[in-house]
Amino acid sequence: MASHIVGYPRMGPKRELKFALESFWDGKSSADDLKKVSADLRSSIWKQMSDAGIKYIPSNTFSYYDQVLDTTAMLGAVPPRYGWTGGEIGFDTYFSMARGNASVPAMEMTKWFDTNYHFIVPELGPDVKFSYASHKAVEEYKEAKALGVDTVPVLVGPVSYLLLSKPAKGVEKSFSLISLLDKILPIYKEVVAELKAAGASWIQFDEPTLVKDLESHQLQAFTSAYSHLESSLSGLNVLVETYFADVPAEAFKTLTSLEGVTGFGFDLVRGTKTLDLIKGGFPSGKYLFAGVVDGRNIWANDAAASLSILQSLEGIVGKDKVVVSSSCSLLHTAVDLVNETKLDKELKSWLAFAAQKVVEVNALAKALDGRKDEAFFSANAAAQASRKSSPRVTNEAVQKAAAALKSSDHRRATNVSARLDAQQKKLKLPILPTTTIGSFPQTMDLRRVRREFKAKKRIMSRLLRMKSTKVVKLQEELDIDVLVHGEPERNDMVEYFGEQLSGFAFTVNGWVQSYGSRCVKPPIIFGDVSRPKPMTVFWSSMAQSMTARPMKGMLTGPVTILNWSFVRNDQPRFETCYQIALAIKDEVEDLEKAGINVIQIDEAALREGLPLRKSEEAFYLEWAVHSFRITNCGVADTTQIHTHMCYSNFNDIIHSIIDMDADVITIENSRSDEKLLSVFREGVKYGAGIGPGVYDIHSPRIPSTEEIADRVNKMLLVLETNILWVNPDCGLKTRKYTEVKPALQNMVAATKLIRTQLSSAK
Ligand SMILES: CN1c2c(nc(N)[nH]c2=O)NC[C@@H]1CNc1ccc(C(=O)N[C@@H](CCC(=O)N[C@@H](CCC(=O)N[C@@H](CCC(=O)O)C(=O)O)C(=O)O)C(=O)O)cc1
Ligand SMILES: N[C@@H](CCS)C(=O)O
Ligand SMILES: [Zn+2]
């Protein structure tokens, strides 16, 4: 029986690509150095899969930044502002699109489905002149072949590419992106022809949009795209891969009827309903790539359970037609458990990172073939049993408290406008209050302090206190109204809390790419969650004691902790979320008791956790919003609760956002063409405080006072003066002080300018 991997993490087991990229961007190493590190990573990944016995090994899943941007490069769809004049796209143009440069901002970045990975959104319109401008897919195929590995080149499928794009600036919103199919398919044909000439026998098209609720004309686009490609694909085996959820019945019909396609890939972990569709009928003679090994999590596969699913699938599609696969690209899981030196043996036996998942896929394929590795299966069964029965997983008090939450609602007693009045009496803020989102630059020096003094808590506290003092002073000098302490003690807004909560474990090298060179290390939730002691009160009270201005307490909310962790798969996600909500509630109440009057509870990931299918949204939003409200339902009217969210496709969930009942919300806004404001233009009433970000923090570019003032004025056209806040899009941790100081200076100057205009207009 054959085995297949959808895609593999590209950063390397010790984040080698991250360091190579950042060194190149800083001008400390050459393009050749970067290419060498990258080639070494690719080669070791291919070798590892080949040694493990994987039959269908992917290529072109490596990327210097993002696979959607790679597709934009392949199609030559570079927005004109980057000044590309044709030819093969080089690093200059590629990284300018990804990160912006001194004169041009970066392209929009948004979440890849419901993951914590971000892609660069293609900007397309009727006038884009497509051309074959990056031969990366073919080069990688040849590179692997030269190393003796015959791979399956992977391309983002043409229909998903267009469905994930947005109309370029100035193009009518009604413009049909799908109408560009005819223009991009000729380039796909060129790529396919080159791959065939290079000797490829399989090709994989990733079409994950097939798991969403598509309209019939969108489904029709798949039919026409693949029938258009059919003649060029002849002689090749073609796999169309879907992932992240089950495929709706209509889409399943369309997919499995596509012409010229040899195999279909399904996520059978998040898409268990697809099993029923397969049982209902699968085209004869075609291959089923059965994604039974979870690419989104770190739990060891339940091999016996998977084997029985695979055997039943064999009964339906035929003995040689089932290919064992990962549920999606392993990009979304950690790289190699071997590098985890601090996890205890028992916990480690419950886990599998990407390298171990490759072994699992192969072991399942061998077992289906009658070559069962008994040692592997019995160790796997023992680990599954130990996880099920371990007392470390269960805390009955927590389970009871969380169960009690479900039957009742939790809301603050007073309505938001009365609360805002009570808070204003206490805080006495000017109109258009200025604030930032929490983190200040995470400099090398700061990271060194945390790293070197981790074990020497007292020295670390003293050094971090000095950092906070600097941040507080800087904000006072800049004349910001509501301050933050800068989060110097935090490596990451989720990992930091995971490290202090019971029921969590954390890794030393469990990095997962978030965007570009940036990675996160999601904590592992393995048991019932509780808070042994306060987590932030020390830092927030210390910072408050340094200033007379209000200091925001800074917490990460339960839904974000859940969505950015590796979550246990032995109970529903909402159960775990309620447990985290109770822990954060205790923290909120302790902060309030310590005299913190403004508390921000970040729910940066609430939107991204939204299920991919409409029918599941209401249930998720209900428990997610409820969990948030649980955290702060017990505070006084005078305590101002802020929340913050990044990435602003909120228009569809605006009513849930209102239902969170926060006093103030700050939202990313500037890198997405101010889409957020359109919801207010369309008449949605929002009575709480709101701070749509006035500048992009992902780019080193410094926004001018005029540009920020212009943005604020646009906001004032749709939002009342008395509810508008002025703040950046998100935290400042990835920026340098040389960027943050002038940017915030301009932000405050712009605010003062508008305050003056407003008061003279009265
Ligand atoms: C807001 N965002 C977040 C998301 N998810 C999260 N879990 N957290 C988030 O904040 N998703 C959406 C967005 C994504 N945005 C970002 C922004 C920035 C980063 C980022 O900067 N990540 C860092 C991670 C580095 C880190 O945490 N380091 C630790 C440990 C120190 C360290 O790095 N040690 C190295 C050695 C390095 C050396 O100098 O020698 C080591 O031991 O390996 C720390 O700071 O304490 C990154 O650099 O990628 C991510 C997502
Ligand atoms: N408080 C966090 C939110 C990021 S989404 C920060 O400022 O980094
Ligand atoms: Zn944010």
Topology:
Blueprint: E1 2-4, H1 16-25, H2 31-52, E2 57-59, H3 67-74, H4 91-99, E3 109-111, E4 118-120, E5 123-124, H5 136-146, E6 151-156, H6 158-163, E7 166-167, H7 181-198, E8 202-206, H8 216-233, E9 237-241, H9 249-256, E10 263-267, H10 273-280, E11 287-293, H11 303-317, E12 322-326, H12 345-349, H13 354-368, H14 374-389, H15 396-406, H16 416-427, H17 444-452, H18 457-478, H19 495-498, E13 502-505, E14 512-515, E15 518-520, E16 524-530, H20 537-544, E17 552-556, H21 558-563, H22 573-593, E18 598-602, H23 614-632, E19 640-645, H24 654-659, E20 664-667, H25 675-681, E21 689-692, H26 705-718, H27 737-761
Parallel strand pairs: 1-12, 2-6, 5-7, 6-8, 8-9, 9-10, 10-11, 11-12, 17-18, 18-19, 19-20, 20-21
Antiparallel strand pairs: 3-4, 13-16, 14-15
Helix pairs in contact: 1-2, 5-7, 7-8, 8-9, 11-13, 15-22, 17-18, 22-23, 26-27
Task: Tell me what the structure shows.
By secondary structure, the chain is an alpha/beta fold. It has two domains: 2-60 and 148-389, Alpha-Beta Barrel (TIM Barrel); 397-402 and 415-761, TIM Barrel. The strands form six sheets. The protein has an eight-stranded parallel sheet. Strands 17-18-19-20-21 form a five-stranded parallel sheet. Strand 20 (664-667), helix 25 (675-681) and strand 21 (689-692) form a beta-alpha-beta unit. It is globular and about 75 Å long. The model has no long low-confidence stretch (mean pLDDT 95). The structure holds the ligand CN1c2c(nc(N)[nH]c2=O)NC[C@@H]1CNc1ccc(C(=O)N[C@@H](CCC(=O)N[C@@H](CCC(=O)N[C@@H](CCC(=O)O)C(=O)O)C(=O)O)C(=O)O)cc1, 2-amino-4-mercapto-butyric acid (HCS) and zinc ion. Residues 18, 116, 442, 447, 450-451, 491-494, 514, 518-520, 564, 604, 646, 733-734 line the site of ligand LYWDKB7T.
